[in-house]
Amino acid sequence: MIKASKRSSGVSYAIRDLVVPAKELERKGYKILHLNIGDPNKYDFDTPPHMKEALYQATLRGENGYSPSEGYPELIESIIDREKKRNNVTYTREHICITSGVTESLQMFLNASLDPGDEILIPGPTYPQYRVITKFNDAEPIPYRCIEEEGWQPDIEDIRKRITKKTKAIVIINPNNPTGAVYPANVIKKIID
C-alpha cells in the first residue's frame, strides 16, 4: 500500500466524512436524507429537455471526446461578449480559463497562489473544497462570519479584523454555496475596498 503524504494528513472533506456515520445510522433504522452531495437529479431537478437534446445532437456529430485544452473558441468568445454586455468589462482570450468544473478551477487557482503559511479568508459556512485545497497547500483557511439574520451576508467588520500580513486572498462566493445568499454589488465593493 502506498503511504499517504504528510501534506495530506491534515486534510479532511466534511461532506464525504458524513457518509459513513450516516450509513451506520441508516443500518440502525434511522431515516436519513442524504443532502451531502449536491446531485440535483436525486431531488426532482431533472436536466432540461433542450440540454438533453443538445447533448444527444453533439454525440451524433461525434463531439463526445476531449475538448481543446484551452476550451472551445466559441465558448471563450461568448464569455468575453457576455462580460462586456453585462458588466462592461473587457477581457481577452488570455483572461479566460475553461475548466471541468469549480473544483478544478479552485485547485488550479489556489495551487498557483498559495505558499506554505499563507492565509485565505473564506466565508463561514462555506463550500468545503476551499478548506481542503488550502490545507493541502500548507496554508490556513480563516473563516469570516456571515450573518444568518441578514440572509447570510458577509460581516464586513469581521473580515477587516481577520486580515493579517499573511492574508493572500479573500474568497467571495456569490451566490454562496451552501447558503444560497446573493451579495449585492455594494457588499462586494466594501469587501474589495
Low-pLDDT segments, ≥5 res: none
Q: Kindly identify the CATH topology of the largest domain.
A: Aspartate Aminotransferase, domain 2
SS-based class: alpha/beta
Summarize the main sheet.
Answer: 4 strands, mixed
Report on this model:
- With 193 residues, the protein is of the alpha/beta class.
- It folds into three domains: 11-61, no CATH class; 69-98; 101-192, Type I PLP-dependent aspartate aminotransferase-like (Major domain) (Aspartate Aminotransferase, domain 2), CATH 3.40.640.10.
- The protein is built from nine helices and four strands, in the order H-H-H-H-H-H-E-H-E-E-H-E-H.
- It has a four-stranded mixed beta sheet with strand order 3-2-1-4.
- Helix 7 (129-136) links the parallel strand 1 and strand 2.
- The longest helix is centred in the middle third of the chain and has 15 residues, at 73-87.
- The protein is globular, with a radius of gyration of 20 Å.
- It starts with 5 loop residues before the first helix and ends with a helix.
- The model has no long low-confidence stretch (mean pLDDT 90).
